[in-house]
Amino acid sequence: MPPKLTLKDKVLASLREVAQHNSSSMVPPEVILWPDPERQWEAVLPLLRPVLPELLTLGDYKADLRQGPAVWLKCMVARTLPTADWPAGTIPVIYLPGISKKDLRTPEPQGLQLAPLREYQFTGVVWLQDNGKEWTISAFIQNPGSGQGRRTATDTATKDTLLHALPWLFEESETLYGKGTLDAGHVLAALFPDEPACVLRWLEEGDAYLAGLEPGRQALFRTLCETRYDFTPEASQRLVVAQWLGIRRQAVWQPVWQHFTHAPHKFKELPALLRQAQPPGLGGMLTTNPESWPQVNEDQETVLRQGLVKAAAQLPPAAAAQLAALEAAHGMRRAWVWADLQQAPLAQALPHLLHLVQVATGPVPNHDLTKLRHYYEQQGYQADQAMRLALAAVSTGPDKEAVQAVVRLFYQPWLELVTDRFQQLLRADASALLPASVPPPSEEAFVLFVDAFRLEVAQEFVAQLRQQGYEVELTTAWSALPSVTPTAKAWSSPLAGIVSRQSAVADFVPQLADSGKVLNTANFRGALPQVGYSYLPLGTAPQAGQRYWQEIGDVDTKGHEEQAGIVHRIPELLRRVKEAVDRALEGGAPRIRLVTDHGWLLLPGGLPKEQLSKDLVDTRWGRCALLKPGATSSLLQLPWSWNPQEFITYAPGISFFKANVEFAHGGLSLHECLVPVLIISKGGAAAGPVSGKITAQKWVNLRCTVAVEDAPEGSVVDLRTSLTDAGSSLLLHPPKAVAGGKASLMADDAKQGQPAILVLLGPDNTILDKQSTLVGE
Q1: Per the CB 3.0–4.6 Å rule, which of 124, 255, 278, 612 could disulfide with 29?
Q2: CB-based burial of residue 665 (10 Å sphere; 0-12 exposed, 13-18 middle, 19+ buried)?
Q3: Are strands 674-681 and 703-709 parallel, antiparallel or unpaired?
Q4: Which residues of 261-283 are buried (b: 16+ CB within 10 A; e: fewer)?
């Protein structure tokens, strides 16, 4: 199929056609006159001159534009001037702005200005329609022979829009073709395909946005605003227009609001406008479209904060019920734009608190270390993760206090229960944590050591890697005892086999078996070649065929410095670890073995204090101590991993040998001693970015039909009260895959009228889009 011709192509062809003549019986016309009484075509002259060098224009003399008065034009047509340099035999075209066919025939009103050109009516040709009228833009577009054969509307808005849009329509080949009548709306939609973004930018920038547009586009944007949105883009109207956006005054405003919610960070001034624009009258959740107004969200955050504090003051069963009620009332706000703008931290923390309650109030195995370990690997770690994510969601003092109060109500008893049971089992038999031999040497050529990589953090990292197409195998191992870096780092490293099992205990640092050197950082790295490894600094590219040990992370240091504030550091840690993994794999490492030294305890508000007199100890760290010779204690004591003859004393439960400490390690708990081991490889091709958008929803009773665009095959739509919690689904049946751009959902009739979130999920359960709704409405 041949390509469609542009309006420019059509005009050029028509001009050439009008000059055609029978050379055997006619002399060629001297010139082609192009009268344009309304000056409709003037804006495209700059686009024609490069391809039509014979184009001349009547007007004030401007040599660079080939424009001049009638006498000068006569000289150019006669080729008596050196600038008349178009090819021989080419018939020049004279564009006559503001001149009609009638003006050429009468002495008035143009007077002497046109006199030298009037003879060209007879020695040249005039570019006119078949009916003898001058060509207008609409007439040319509608003409089936010369133009595109597309009917255009006759209203003033369409004529004005075509006039202003001509420079952009002139060289494109789609808008002017098609079926149906071409009107202002079609043209504006083609020229402003991102019109919601344009309206938002005007709201954001005001007159500065208009000033940045070319004059023609300014006029078109004004037309767009006036015809589609019913406002004139003037600075005094911004507040009114912001209110219309917030209340979605007409259906046309819904796409504009959706554009804002999909990219709110691009419009930094709009929240302040919406704050001022909230309509008077009913407040809170009874306001029209409450999700539009930042102060409604702020008020609801205050209500939620008060609810959390109230819940934390109750017994756990009542508190759990209160949290569920708070989720029903506030969960929908996670789909509001203010959540994306980090202005709904408590609503964001709420599902993590509920998940914490679910795990922390469930059964915990007893009497069997293997079962307890399996419980923590499969389920228990989620309590740690939920606690951390809830704390990470908040940053201000009042919000922290509210979340911490709930955390302590549910997390502390669970943490104490799991740790007490773990220590009771170790009192009976600690052989699982005290093997007779060190771990076998690694078979991997690249070992990445990540400081204090707690199991729940590793689980989050594994989920991220798998989502991006990596192959990851996660297993667990026991840390060395005590679970402090000087002891446990060597245990997880390729050096474990050359470290003395009769080391002298001093600050829990072992020694190399052959030389007796203390295994500090320098000696550790210096000993790596003995076992076939080299230390690889971060940022250094590995070389193929070499075996490397690399270290990353500062959770231990930052945790002791920042205490509970360490929760805000984890995303950055995972980003840096991911960079190290990618660099190693790109450098030729087929697989990476990721190891760590220990985990940690974290309890906002502080771990309980255990008294241990410093007079009894040679070395006392937070959760472990080395007693002086002859000193006794009723506290649990276990052999040091690097010398079974040396016994280390441990704080009971989750206690600490000092007061007011939230972050700790070195003791006996699953959280400190059970560590992850990851084997990472590239696997298949990393998953590329996916897209998808919910474009419409329609409820008929309890059935909702959801329209979807650009969703990958296998996508589904769910109906939830919590954006990220699949367990909060309100559907009677599991969601089915999107088919034909639509999904049909049936909600539980008990949920009629309940706020909910439509969630578009990719085939890998990635959230692609979301939209608030009311069940059945």
Answers
A1: 124
A2: buried
A3: unpaired
A4: beebeebeebbebbeebbeeeee
CA-to-CA distance for 376 and 599, rounded, in angstroms? 13
Residues 6+ apart with CB under 8 A from 688: none
Question: Starting from the edge strand earliest in sequence, which strands make up the sheet with 755-761, in order?
Answer: 716-720, 755-761, 767-774
Residues pairing with 679 in the sheet: 473, 593
Question: How many Å apart are CA 247 and CA 287, to the nearest integer?
Answer: 9
Looking only at the bridges linking them, the beta strands covering 592-595 and 674-681 are antiparallel
Closest listed residue to residue 747, CA positions, set 726, 733, 737, 727: 733
- The rounded mean pLDDT for the chain is 90
What tens digit of pLDDT does each residue of 268-278 get? 999 999 999 99
Return the axis-axis angle of helices 294-312 and 270-277, rounded to nearest 10°: 90
Angle at 453 between CA 450 and CA 459, to 5 degrees: 120
Residue 289, helix vs strand vs coil: coil
- Asked whether the beta carbons of 311 and 406 are under 8 A apart, the reply is yes
Beta pairing partners, 94 = 33, 56
Number of Cβ within 10 Å of residue 399's Cβ equals: 18
Question: Which ranges of 636-757 does DSSP label H, i.e. alpha helix?
Answer: 670-673
Q: What angle (nearest 5°) sits at the alpha carbon of residue 112, between those of residues 107 and 115?
A: 70
Give me the residue label for tokens 């133009």: 147
Extract the tokens encoding 15: 């001009």
Q: Which of 50, 57, 51, 10 is nearest to 31 (CA)?
A: 57
**Cα 474–chain centre separation:** 28
Three-class DSSP labels, 542-582? CCCCCCEEEEECCHHHHHHHHHHHHHHHHHHHHHHHHHHHH
Residues 175, 46: contact at Cβ < 8 Å? no
How far apart are the C-alpha atoms of 342 and 350, rounded to whole Å? 14
CA distance 706 to 720: 14
Q: How far are the Cα atoms of 563, 603, 657, 658 from residue 611, in angstroms, in the given order? A: 21, 19, 6, 8
By three-state DSSP, how is residue 760 classified? Answer: strand
What does the DSSP assignment read for 227-239?
Answer: HHSS----GGGHH
**pLDDT tens-digit map of 589-611:** 999 999 999 999 999 999 999 99
Strands 446-450 and 548-552: parallel
Query: pLDDT of 543-594, one tens digit each?
Result: 888 999 999 988 989 999 999 999 999 999 999 999 999 999 988 899 999 9
User: How distant, in Å, are the alpha carbons of 318, 388, 557, 606, 661 from that of 404?
Assistant: 17, 10, 23, 11, 14
Q: Check whether 52 has a pLDDT greater than 80.
A: yes
Rounded to whole angstroms, the Cα distance separating 436 from 741 reads 62
